[in-house]
Amino acid sequence: MKTGIIILAAGAATRMGKPKMLLPYGEKNLLQHIVQQAQQIPSEGILIVTGYYDAMIKQAFNNYPINLVYNEQWKEGMASSIKLGLQWWLEQNNALTQIMILVSDQPYLNADILNKLLQQQQQTQKGIIAATYDGITGTPVLFTRPYFPQLLQLMGDKGAGNILKAFSEDVAAISFEAGKYDIDTPEDYEQFCLHNN
Q1: Which ranges carry the MobA-like NTP transferase domain (predicted)?
Q2: Comparing C-alpha atoms, which of 49, 181, 172 is closest to residue 117?
């Protein structure tokens, strides 16, 4: 299987008031942590889709062996970043068989979870593998090639959730309870730091 990885990092993080993906995380920042986890799984490579904080993210990843692409339509929402990321991957590698989509504000994401997505796809042969937490099916999520056309038709800020609902019989899940913790506000980050020092 040929897997392309897309990390969504285009938003303005308005509730945080600053680039949440660049907040300190140990000796790195949060986005560097996500990239480091993604680098540990077999893939064709990693693409970060940037937007509002494009220049700052590029500076933070100056010496990383990853790819970055700027989403000029980042204000339109997550769908535009998913589409741009997938289009970029298909231009780079038309033999791609699946795409893994990650967000940049799940601090507990790790390589074990990402490997479980790959393993679950191999074991179940389902077209979509998604993480579940608190009764929610969401990111990280793996889409096989038959779903690329649906991803390329996404609109707005709903992400790929509607595809998961529409094709629920072809979705297999992995448990990622810590996925419910994301960092959207200063309070979220403060709580995360309190529990991880």
Answers
A1: 6-166
A2: 172
Provide the b/e sequence for 24-60 (b: ≥16 CB within 10 Å): ebeeebbbbbbbebbeebebbebbbbbbbbbeebeeb
For residue 60, what are the CA distances in angstroms to 19, 72, 87?
Answer: 12, 20, 24
pLDDT tens-digit map of 1-31:
899 999 999 987 655 566 778 787 888 888 9
Instruction: Give how many domains the chain has, as a whole number.
Output: 1
Q: Range of 20's domain?
A: 3-195
Chain centre distance of CA 39? 13
> H helices within 67-110, ranges in order?
78-92
Is the pTM value of this prediction over 0.90? yes
Q: Give tens-digit pLDDT for 31-54.
A: 999 999 999 999 999 999 999 999
Q: What is the CATH number of the domain that holds 135?
A: 3.90.550.10
> Which amino acid is present at 166?
A
First-residue to last-residue Cα distance in the chain? 38
Cα–Cα distance for residue pair 38/86, rounded to 1 Å? 17
Question: Residue 168 in contact with residue 125, Cβ under 8 Å?
Answer: no
For residue 127, which of 169, 89, 189, 188 has the smallest C-alpha distance? 169
The count of other CB atoms within 10 Å of the CB of residue 125 is 10
- Give phi and psi for 110, each to the nearest 5: -145, 170
